[in-house]
């Protein structure tokens, strides 16, 4: 036994022998949801021996966390979840060091008047970039979320993972986890000198609680490992780049579900998710007037549809790539197969919890990770209540 | 020139030399939509030299026509399309010989009361099969379409193709067509003695009008051939079998979008289409409690969801197969990517028409094929009007 208050151990590669046989809780996946849940578990249940397992490094670089838009906005949050959203905002801004937090309004541009909307031309003096981005005659109204902000979800995941370890969580990297009845099988991965990723050794570890936070891979992992069925879905989302100038004061724009997120001096485009992708789908690039490009066809169509109201989409400022690998993309979990569903957790078998971020993790993810940690710890209070 | 009134020629295999260089109109695809359009074109524009091209035999055996549910119903037809639906019904019943026409009511079973609905138990004396199929407490109400009928769309396509040829259309089978500016390139296919399908010869044919009636392959064909972009989609639909007895008097049932179509002494299940499948999707089977089955996952979920209200779905009466090949399935065109859209035609370039059947071709397909033929022929009148 280690002394209370000591940092956890980290196994980064197979040269470090791992011989643990059991934990109170194991969290699978060190993306934003898993790393945050591990961090909150150390705070709320310090007596629980905790292992965080990640297939790659910290934070996970292949899932939705690193490619998440990093846009916090209260637009589209239902009234009963607003306290959680506000808590997630405050935590993200203040508690995890430098996460590139940047308060900036989000403008939802509309084709017709709506409650609380202002005329788009009235925003031009404040946001001069709008003149080059938007046709104000086609989008004459705008709803403004003054409390919106952008940040880096990957930085949140990294900070949560590091703090969890500092607070005593063990961390096992480069390890592929499979669910078994009562625990997990851990395949520690290594790379051969022919660059093949292979399993170096497998360990069975028992755990009273297993939290599956593997993003879009979580529900299939639970299903294949334990023969369960879940109603969750997934979608492959690409985030193409639009090279039109942006700065610190540039707002986030949203047009009919398409988000333009100022980033690296231009914009990252976050397309809408209309529905899940079918089981077995492998993303491929589309064609633009016959020429192969790296953006999947469904996303291309969404961009082409909006060219009229967002003229830069019809120019070379849009990076379309030549193959799928040119356009960053990641699989996203869709809780209940529903692109509008907030993040959630679900106990799919006794002691086995699925933790899903999905499209709205930027706004609500931390609160849902906290909620699961508190539930596992037997803590009734939630910091956003009362 | 052949004499007016003579039958057209048929090229079934590459041993029959094909040396035509031009037609007034070429119809690509001898499924239900293409064959019907060719037939109506011969009636409405007998002076137009016409070629019907099919990749396989007559009728097409790989597309949606042969697997179509063959259910005519006025439920869900919008008021402005009802005359076309009635005309399609009358034509199908009377004009194409034996198409296995069977008038039988369609019962849409509901969880709650709706306009015109009757209590499900009141239907039990008339439809005793219901007692074994449905939980009347879970589905206490039903809307009845007394005018519904079942038939074989493949038989309609065959009759239309044969009559088109008898009325003078030429027919080229086993030929893969590609669009070219001003016409088509025709790759005549043959099978080698190692069972490989290869192109025996290619012919360029000029045509004033080209009608692309290749089902789900139509829009991609037009796009690849001519660099166009269309907003149409497609979906892969499987029709699993439910081996629960049915007879001539058994009604068609519909439960939350799932249709149970009495056929061959049991039922063919026609699952709902929720949305299009993404570009590049290759269908694969799913898993039922961990075991691979031939039904795609999305359809499995639809069936599992309805097991409570349709108890036979939870028994061995449902054929789930062991791989995709065990469960009949076909790609369906979705006009405008919308599963609720009626059949339609669209002139995507001068003289180039897309003709799409889609999920509602059973009820409206013939009228839309007629409408396109009349448009090409310059005929103003429609038989279902005034």
Automatic annotation (TrEMBL), chains A, B:
<dbReference type="InterPro" id="IPR036188">
    <property type="entry name" value="FAD/NAD-bd_sf"/>
</dbReference>
<protein>
    <submittedName>
        <fullName>FAD dependent oxidoreductase</fullName>
    </submittedName>
</protein>
<keyword id="KW-0560">Oxidoreductase</keyword>
<keyword id="KW-0274">FAD</keyword>
<comment type="similarity">
    <text>Belongs to the ETF-QO/FixC family.</text>
</comment>
<keyword id="KW-0285">Flavoprotein</keyword>
<dbReference type="InterPro" id="IPR039651">
    <property type="entry name" value="FixC-like"/>
</dbReference>
<dbReference type="GO" id="GO:0016491">
    <property type="term" value="F:oxidoreductase activity"/>
</dbReference>
């Amino acid at each position: 036994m280690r002394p209370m208050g000591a940092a956890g151990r980290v196994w980064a590669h197979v040269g470090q022998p791992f011989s643990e046989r059991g934990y109170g809780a194991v969290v699978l996946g060190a993306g934003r949801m898993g790393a945050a849940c591990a961090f909150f578990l150390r705070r709320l249940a310090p007596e629980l021996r905790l292992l965080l397992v990640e297939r790659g490094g910290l934070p996970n670089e292949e899932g939705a966390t690193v490619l998440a838009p990093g846009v916090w906005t209260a637009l589209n949050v239902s009234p009963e979840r607003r306290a959680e959203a506000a808590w997630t905002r405050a935590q993200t801004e203040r508690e995890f060091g430098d996460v590139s937090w940047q308060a900036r309004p989000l403008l939802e541009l509309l084709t017709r008047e709506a409650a609380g909307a202002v005329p788009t031309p009235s925003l031009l003096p404040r946001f001069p970039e709008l003149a080059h981005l938007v046709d104000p005659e086609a989008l004459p109204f705008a709803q403004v979320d003054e409390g919106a902000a952008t940040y880096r979800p990957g930085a949140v995941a990294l900070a949560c993972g590091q703090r969890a370890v500092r607070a005593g969580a063990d961390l096992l990297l480069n390890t592929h986890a499979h669910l078994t009845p009562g625990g997990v099988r851990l395949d520690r991965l290594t790379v051969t000198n022919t660059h093949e990723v292979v399993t170096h050794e497998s360990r069975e570890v028992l755990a009273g609680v297993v939290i599956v936070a593997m993003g879009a891979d979580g529900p299939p992992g639970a299903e294949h490992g334990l023969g369960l069925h879940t109603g969750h879905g997934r979608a492959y989302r690409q985030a193409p780049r639009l090279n039109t100038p942006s700065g610190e004061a540039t707002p986030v724009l949203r047009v009919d579900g398409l988000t333009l997120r100022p980033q690296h001096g231009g914009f990252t485009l976050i397309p809408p998710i209309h529905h899940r992708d079918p089981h077995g789908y492998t993303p491929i690039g589309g064609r633009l007037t016959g020429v192969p490009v790296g953006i999947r066809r469904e996303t291309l169509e969404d961009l082409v549809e909006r060219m009229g109201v967002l003229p830069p989409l019809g120019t070379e400022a849009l990076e379309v790539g030549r193959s799928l690998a040119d356009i960053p993309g990641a699989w996203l979990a869709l809780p209940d197969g529903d692109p509008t569903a907030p993040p959630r957790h679900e106990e799919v078998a006794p002691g086995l919890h699925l933790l899903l971020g999905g499209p709205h993790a930027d706004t609500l993810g931390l609160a849902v990770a906290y909620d699961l940690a508190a539930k596992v710890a037997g803590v009734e209070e939630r910091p956003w209540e009362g």
